[in-house]
Design goal:
By secondary structure, the chain is an alpha/beta fold. 36% of the residues lie in helices and 17% in strands. Helix 6 links the parallel strand 6 and strand 7.
Amino acid sequence: MKKTTIILSTLLITLLSCKQTTQGKSNVQQAGVATSTSPKTEIDSLTVKKHLYTLASDEMQGRKPGTEGMEKATQYIENEYKRIGLKTFKDLNNYRQNFVHEGVEMSNIIGVLEGKSKKDEFVIVSAHHDHLGMKKEGEGDLIFNGANDDASGVVGVLALAEYYAKKGNNERSIVFACFTAEEIGLVGSNYFGKDINPEKFVAGINLELIGKEPKTGPKTAWLTGFDRSDFGKIIQKNLKGTGYKLFPDPYTKFNLFFRSDNASLAKLGVPSHTFSTTSIDTDKHYHKVSDEAETLSIKVLTETVKAVAKGTESIIKGTDTPTRIKLTE
Ligand SMILES: [Zn+2]
């Protein structure tokens, strides 16, 4: 983008005012606790917007592993994990799971919310925080902001982490993972998969491109690999009566089940699927520098994150356990 300075200061002002509004709102909500069920656990659109506009800002330089912009994005996610109160994963000292790939130092960012009664059963909520970086040369906008791909998914991870932390009733442990280097071949999630006992992972909830209304209509999302386990059916059951619907992936010819981080765990047997809301066959911003925050719908993004929270409730609670995945391909 050309007018970086102006845009950045406008962004800062917007973010500051968002923050004030959010705080103001939460005070009001807390004051109203007596009249409403659990208002403080609401996934609110102002926080969603703040996360999205920060992660997809030009300052993050397209979040390519090994760059200064990626470091900024990483720090933002870490600070959010810390604020939310997530614990570190396994024997890691902090939220970063560091490794070197083709000479580049990179890290998955992992936080944990320990389960109340089923501490050793894990549900993973994931998205990828990396994207394509910047064009080396040219005129005009050079930054692949990756707002929908996949800042939108990371927004979901952060919003769900905060939601479950405030709720405080997850019987199973929840691992929140932002995977790196998805764009160059699911590198971060593959690395993560090597270091776990997959038997302990009961489900994988991966979020990709969740900021636009799909061709299936408003208040809908679709799930990759729908028939590979009964995960999708459990979600559909939990969403009954909410007005939000989950459909099987309408783009099976694109082989999307194997093209996002859910695949790294699915190949280990974990019922791990990707939620998406984007018409990827017609979306003109996919993998373009024009994938900017302004092209997303905060309403769709917020509604979808809420639907994922509601839809996965019984899995988090430990009352539903999806069938395992057996890959024959
Ligand atoms: Zn993606």
